[in-house]
Specification:
Layout lengths: L3 E7 L4 E7 L2 H16 L7 H22 L15 H27 L5 H26 L8 H25 L2 E2 L2 H20 L7 E3 L2 E2 H30 L8 H24 L4 H4 L1 H25 L10 H12 L7 H39 L5
Parallel strand pairs: 2-3
Antiparallel strand pairs: 1-2, 4-5
Membrane topology: Multi-pass membrane protein
Cofactor: Mg(2+); Mn(2+)
EC number: 2.7.8.1
């Protein structure tokens, strides 16, 4: 297959970014479009600002849908539906976020400003964007008889999260970031779905496509199919190819699988919580629970990204999961039965603040490092 290969050398810093995109949708449609877009951007526009702006479009869409459909009931029969203009905004914002995510790297290469900070900022925000993307898309179908259950959506969220971390697991082991096909397909599809929903209304999605197969079933199949038919087989093939070519960075199976330990523990803890919850927390507060899980996942993933960037060993356990273990044990034991919702809100706030603090701290350290390095380059040689 043809490929788009990104190689952004920074010989002065001894760092380079190497990624491969073999998705036909990206190569033949999106990349030519992004190449046209980046040409009209001013060269003074920082790539990281483009990245942040794209991410904020997703956060704004999530916030807008939270206002009109906090509990995911609005698209169900007999409920007040989300206004059409909101779906138009969601479609435009989602496509803008997708476009800016595709343009930021091109702007960095165009202005010769590719850095490890840019890679962490881009991919770190991408990992956090997963939960905003999935939760917003869920509002199209919602819950109830005409939609998808909140428990099913929880597992679909994990399918998306696992698909994301697979790419970074590949890079941790091969040194190359193979961009997943499912990302481009899902972004374009859901942008179109938002606009169609604005035109025809959510009632259209109630009707079966063929026989007893509904649009909500296609929604589920699209997410699961992207993982098991496209992303997972390609990831395993790329790692096997590196093994066959003797280019794997980690020879033992244990070291190669280290990046999965914390995400798996997070999955186990969050699944135990919803399965053994005394108050059925996932039914009462699905949006907050998704946000908590997605943010904790992003925190774990960012640490993996830092490890693969710095060629350091991935830690098997993220410290954030230690207090979460205590919280889950207290909840499922019934100790906090009367205040479980309050506990969820407090823990979600702690996770959000911890993740933001981690991101700000890492960005500050990287910025300080490169400022010191740049100063050392300008300093006259005493010899």
């Amino acid at each position: 297959l043809p490929q788009c290969v990104y190689f952004s050398p920074l010989s002065n810093q001894g760092y380079h970014i190497y990624a491969v995109d073999s998705n036909p949708l990206s190569i033949y449609i999106m990349h030519p479009f992004w190449n046209s877009v980046v040409k009209i951007l001013p060269t003074w526009l920082a790539p990281n600002l483009i990245t942040l702006t794209g991410f904020m479009f997703l956060v704004l869409t999530f916030s807008l849908l939270s206002f009109y459909d906090f509990d995911f009931y609005a698209s169900g029969e007999g409920h007040t539906h989300v206004p059409s203009w909101v779906w138009i905004v969601a479609g435009l914002f989602n496509f803008l976020a997708y476009t800016l995510d595709g343009v930021d790297g091109k702007q960095a290469r165009r202005t010769n400003s590719s850095t490890p900070l840019g890679e962490l900022f881009d991919h770190g925000l991408d990992s956090w964007a997963c939960v905003f993307f999935v939760a917003t898309a869920y509002s199209v179908f919602g819950r109830g008889e005409t939609g998808v259950s909140v428990v099913t959506l929880y597992y679909l969220l994990w399918v998306v999260l696992f698909s994301f971390i697979l790419s970074h697991w590949e890079k941790y082991n091969t040194g190359i970031l193979f961009l997943p096909w499912g990302y481009d397909i899902s972004e374009v599809t859901i942008s179109i779905v938002y606009i169609v929903t604005a035109v025809v209304g959510v009632e259209t999605w109630y009707k079966p496509v063929i026989g007893n197969i509904h649009y909500r079933n296609l929604f589920t199949v699209l997410i699961v199919g992207c993982l098991f038919v496209v992303t997972l087989p390609m990831s395993l093939y790329n790692v096997f190819k590196a093994y066959r070519n003797n280019t794997l960075k980690h020879s033992s199976v244990y070291e190669a699988l280290l990046p999965f330990f914390s995400p798996v523990l997070l999955f186990v803890l969050s699944t135990l919580w919803i399965s053994l919850s005394p108050t059925d927390i996932i039914e009462k507060q699905p949006r907050i629970f998704y946000l908590m899980v997605g943010t904790a996942f992003s925190n774990v993933t960012c640490k993996l990204i830092v490890c693969q960037m710095s060629n350091t060993r991935c830690k098997p356990l993220s410290l954030l999961l230690l207090p979460m273990t205590a919280v889950v044990l207290l909840v499922i034991s019934g100790t906090l039965q009367n205040g479980e919702i309050t506990v969820l809100y407090i823990w979600t706030a702690i996770v959000l603040l911890t993740h933001i603090h981690y991101g700000v701290s890492v960005v500050k350290q990287l910025s300080d490092h490169f400022n010191i390095y740049a100063f050392s380059l300008k300093k006259p040689n005493s010899d």
